[in-house]
From TrEMBL:
The chain crosses the membrane at residues 90-111, 118-136, 190-209, 221-240, 293-311, 320-338, 358-387, 399-420. Keywords: Membrane, Transferase, Transmembrane, Transmembrane helix. Residues 37-393 form the DUF6311 domain. The lineage of its organism: Bacteria, Bacillati, Actinomycetota, Actinomycetes, Micromonosporales. This is Glycosyl transferase. Pfam families: DUF6311. GO terms for molecular function: transferase activity.
Amino acid sequence: MALVALALAGYVTNGLWADPYTHVLSDNVGDQAFFEWLMGYGYYTVTHGADPFFTDLLNAPLGVNLAANTSITVYTVLMTPLTHLAGPQVSFVTVLTLNLAGSAFAWYLFLRRWLVRNAGAAAVAGLFCGFAPGFISHANGHLNWTAGWVAPVVLWQVLKLREPGRWLRNGIVLGLLLAMGFSIAAEGLFYTALASGVFLGVWSLGKAVRDEARAAMPTVARALGVAAVVAGVLLGYPLYMHFAGPQTFSGTGFNQRFFVEDLASYLSYPTRSVGALFGLHSDLAPNRTEETSFFGIPMLLLIVVSFVLLWRRADPGRRATLRAVGVVGLVFVVLSWGPRLLINKHEYDIPMPYAVLAYFPLFDAALPVRFALVAVGVIGILLALIVDQLISRRIPLGGLHAGLSAAVVVSLLPLIPLPLVTQHRAAEPAFIANGTWKNYVPEGGTLSALPMAMNVSADGQRWQAYTMARGGRQFRIPDGYFLGPQTTGELGRKQIGRIGAPPLATDWLFLRAAWYGYVTQLSNADRAQARSDFAYWGLDAVFLPPEITGSDHQTLDRGAVETTARDLLGEPEQVDGVLVWRIRRGVDPVDR
């Protein structure tokens, strides 16, 4: 099973493995650059003793609160040897591949241990959970969300809390898992905790198991107390940084009315699936990275029929489990619809439960569309149970057995994933790779590629990541792709977040040239503004590489950027294949 899962994960990510240095995920260039940056910063953290939850290397001079971002600290530390030897690019695709394979394998082990006897049933459901449409969609750049193995591992330990006489050990283990899960996939851990709470609450109310639940409650309560203490000690500082540290903000940098699940998307197929080859997919997701449901009509019908059949054949104790699983599925499906009901891209003015929850802490920072990922686990559990009965022939051979077996095949075949789409990205320039930049930037100085690093022009952030992975002294960069406050100070802490730094006139000048090919006639007022912006960033030099690349298959206009830079800063030096302009703070660019 482990080998099958790893082979399928390698198949999905083979476009990156073909050339991890110059290939990038087409549908999410920015997030891949950010997670590669985190890999490089992980090596910098270990070798320089830096703070893993705050850095001033990005977004100079203010810095970035990494605890309020998806910082995957455990991964970045564990991968430091590979990051140093092969680069953040290889560490990124390695973690991505192992995440997908590990998720399928962890679900297989969980289902085999807790729900079904048959390894084949656990394998089918495990592969579905690990490579479900939502996780393949998030494989476009999200190392946190592809860590789907966190859910079954945490759930496994939650179910062990009731073991008599082992509350201390089980509590310590759960506390360690919570600390690890927070540092890898905090939002996913939040959903797992909610799902666990809903499941245990509904299950405990079942008449057939009420006495059993009451007897287990003292042991579980003690174990949870231990887990809270252990996790609290380990997460004290990162939680402080997340909620009260510098550069924090309120809520999220994304629109919760936009990032919701379209009700019709549950009936469709994802973009990267066999079903899409036959034109069965629909463009109903907020973007290609958030196709979190897309199970298709056959799968939904199979699950409904399977639930009814399993319920009728179950004893009272198993019915308590099925009821709890079903309620979890319904709750999270409804939450995924967000504040207003959306059907086939049309928003109806019908308030949904999330309209109230959106004002509560934690919920205000979550994206409703991602609640649909919990449905993957629910479907996986029901799929494992029905396939187990089919393989073991507890459903006798005959019309029902044949019909259900065919339904399983018809439901799963269209969901078989296709490889992720990749595109070319600019190779690292020799100016960076050879360390020539050190001749232009003093210790603690600031350097920027042109255009400045943002989510749609991520080259500069990637190249800083590569220098961090090599070790030695480091330069800072302005801007970057991250989540941060709208503005500085207490006002920024109270407002919702934003993607990247608040733009200044000069970074917009170069981004506009790169993205739209727009070249403006510069005045001395523009140069005065640039002097001010350069001084704010503390820039010592800027450089223009021979090739610049962006997101969404966009070819950036290098010629327009060069024309703008020459008009603003004069003639450059040509060094190691790049054009370099030294910046004298408060002097450059000079008026003309």
